[in-house]
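Subject: two folds for Thursday's group meeting

Dear M.,

Sorry for the delay on this. The cluster queue was jammed most of the week, so I only got both jobs back this morning. I'm pasting them in the order they finished. Each block is the input sequence followed by the predicted C-alpha cells. Could you check whether the formatting survives your parser before we put anything on slides? The first protein is the one we discussed after the seminar.
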Amino acid sequence: MNLEAKLRTLRVSSLAVTGFAILLVLAGLSQLVLGGVAVKEEYERIERLEALAPPPSQYYGYQQQRRQLQAEYNRSGSAFFIEGRFLPAGDDQKPGIISIISLITLILAAIGFVISAMIWVWRAHANIREVGIRSKYGPGFAVASYLIPVANFMLPFEAMRELHNRSHGEPEDFAHSGVENVTAWWTAVLVGLLIFSAMIVKFTLDAGTNLILMTPLWMEFALLAFAILLLLTAAYLFSSLTRAITAAQEEVLPEIDLAEIEAEMPDKPRVNIIGA
C-alpha cells in the first residue's frame, strides 16, 4: 500500500470517527433529556403517593421519623436507579419506545466510535513511522495505551500530543510540546470518567451492600449529566483532532525529505584512537 492509499484510509477512518461522534452526541443528549423528564416525573409520582398516605400519629414519634426517612429514601438516587426507574415510562409502566431506541442508538454509536477511533489511531501512528519520522509511540503501543490499567491515565494523552506535533511537521525536540486541543480533550475524558466511576461505585455500594448513601436524586442526576456531557465533549474533540491531524498528514507527509529527518538525528559518537 503506497502513501496515497494509506492517507486515503486515514481520511475514511477519520470520517467514520466524526460520523459516529455526531451520532453519539445526539443520542447522548437525547438520553439526558429523557433522563431529566424521568426525574421530574419521579418527583411528581412521589408527591402523589405521599398525598394519598394517611397522616402519621401525633402520639408515636417513631412513625413521623419513619415517614421522613422513607420520604428521603424515595427522593434519593438509590431508589430511582436501583429500582430501574431511570427511563420514562408510559401508562403501562414499561419503558417508552423512544427511550429504548435512543439507548440502543447510544450503545451502537459508542461501539462504532471506539472501533473507528482505534483504527484511526493505529493508521495515523503507522503513517508517520512508515515515512521515516521518529516517534516514541508506535501504532501498536498507541492503541494498547488505552487498555493498560493506570498507565492509560497518561499514555494516550502523550501519544496523541506527539502524533499531533509530528504530523504537523514539528521537529523531534518539540514532539511533546503542549497542544491546547489535545489537553482539552484529555481533561474532558479524565474528569468525566472519574465522576462516572465514582457514581458507579456509589450505586454498587447501594445495590450490593447494606450501606445506602441517600443523596438527593436531582444531585446524582446532575453529576451524571455533567460527566456524560464531558465525555460527549471529549468524543467531539477527538473527532476534531482526527480531522486536523489527517489534514496535516495529507499536507506534510508527501513532502517529507528523508535528508531532513536524518539531520534531526543526533550524531553518532566518534572515538578517535591515537597511536602511541
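Second protein, same layout:
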Amino acid sequence: VRFFHTHGLQAFISLGGVVLALTGAEALYADMGHFGKRPIRLAWFGFVLPALVLNYFGQGAMLLEHPAAVDNPFFKIVPHALLYPMIGLATAAAVIASQAVISGAFSMTREAMSLGYSMRMPVVHTSREMSGQVFVPWVNSFLLVMVLLAVVGFRSSDSLSAAYGIAVTGTMAITTLLALVVARRQWHWNGVVVVLVGAVLLTIDLSFFGANLIKVDHGGWFPLVLGLGVFVLMTTWRRGRELVVRGIRQGGLALAPFIENISEHPPLRVPGTAVFLTANQASVPHSLLHNLKHNKVLHERNVLLTVEVLDTPMADATEHLRVESLGGEFYRLELRFGFAEDPNVPLSLSQCARAGLPFDMMDTTFFLSRETVVADKRRPGMALWRDKLFVFMARNALPATAFFQIPGNRLIELGAQVEI
C-alpha cells in the first residue's frame, strides 16, 4: 500500500512486471483432464508453492544484499559450481511446463469438438486407462508454427514478455469470470456472495491485465490477435453448423406421415438393419429418402440414430441411450455422450440389446447424408466471408463417420447440397 501511495501510476505500471512472477501457475490446471484435481492440489500445496516462496525470498535477499544482481537474480543465487546443472534443470522445467499447456490445448480442442465449437479433427488416444490423455496432430502442428513465428518475430524472451503478460493475465480474468458463472449456475451460490467474491478476484486480475495493456504495441497485440482469430473460427463453425441444420430441416419431410405412407404402400424390403444418422428427429433423414428414391428398397428394420453431446463431462448411464418404436419396423435411437467421452457408435449399439433393440453388426448398414455446403450471399445468417470460411472448414473437417467411429466397410454415404 505504501509503495502504491508513494509511486502512484508507476506502481500500477510495475504490476506488468510483477505478474511475471505468477506466470506458470495457470499451467497447473492445464492437465486437469489428465491427472485430476487431487494430484494437482497436492503438487501445488505440497511442493510447488513452498518452492516458489523459498525461491523468491532467496532472490529478494540477494537483491537486498547485492542490488547489482537485479539483471538476473535467479541464476546469481545459484553457487557457481551448480550453475550449468541449474540451466539444464530450468530448461527441463520449461519443456515440462510447455508439455502441460500443449496437453491442455489437446484436451480443450477435443471438448470444443464435442460441444460443436470446433471442426472435427483426428484425435489419437495415448492411454487405455485415461480417456483424457489425447493427442491432436492438427493442433500440435498449429502450435509448432505459432511458436516458430513467435521466436522468429520476437527474437528474445524480453520482447516476448509483453505478449506473455497479456496472455496470462487475460487467461486469469477469463478463468475468474467462468468460475463465477459455475459458482452461480452449478454450485448455486448466493448472488451476493458471487458478486463479492468476483469483485475481489477481478480487482486483482483486471489490475494485472490493465497494467499489461500498455504493452500492446510492444508485442501484446500477438495474443490478442491470435485469440481473436481462434474466436472467429469457433463462432463461425458453431453458427455455420446451425445454418446447415436449419437448411436441412427446412427441406425435410415430416416423419410421422412418411411412416404411415410406407405402411399403406410398402416398398420392397431387404434383409438386415439400416441405421440412418440424423440430427433432426422430426423429419425423414435425407439419406433414407435418397436410398428409397434411387434403390427402391427399404431394410427390414430401420433405425433413425441421433447423437447428442451433453454439457456435462460424462453422460449418466441412465440417459446414455433411449429407444423408441415408431411402428412399421422403424425405431428412433438417441445416444448421449458427455463432452469428455468418445462417441463410439458401434460400441453403444452393442449395448442396445438390453433396451430391446439388438444389433448384429455384420447385418447392419449405416447410411449417412454427406452435405456439400455452398455459400450463398443471398441467404441471411453470416457475412459472405464467414460463409466461405465455414465451407473451407467443413470440407477439411474429419468426416462424422470417423468421429463416431463407424466402420467404413459398413457405411453408405449419399450426397446432399445445402446452401447457407
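Two things I noticed about the second structure. Strands lie at 124-125, 134-135, 268-277, 297-309, 321-327, 330-337, 364-374, 411-419. The mean pLDDT is 87.

Cheers,
T.
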